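Posting this for the archive.
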Amino acid sequence: MANTNLIKTKIHPYVRNWLKRKYGIAFGRNKLPLRECEGVHFFDAVSIDGKIVAEIKAASGNTSGGKHPSGKRASAFEQLYFLSLAKAETKLLILTNLEFFNIIETKSAGTLPTSIQLLYCHLPARLQALVQSVTDEASEEIDRGKSPSKSKPQPKPRR
């Protein structure tokens, strides 16, 4: 199984430090109450004063097969949903892959509340390589799980 824990232990702390430099306040993973319901949600980055909340996505762009990343996009929109319910002044979806940022920016155009901002956080080469290794491992797992019988049917020879 792909080691996605590396994303949480290496990438998320880097992005939280990036946020600290950008906003001048410390961030940590924390839960916040949600508007108009009794629930709470753990967010990837919450400022210590609770005024800024962010979710972090280290997803890559298109799939290894060159297809649109519909599952990754759905995951980003799930995070946008929770951000929309967060009781915070500033709400951010931070993407660490420029290709994925462009996909989400295009697909969400005109549909995001003005209270939510999309941000791109450029990762240093060593962290980009780490994300790429996790992405490659996950792609290999998916490819191994594909059944040859589920592949596209071959055309029948003409007689």
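The chain has a mean pLDDT of 87. DSSP finds four helices and five strands in the chain.
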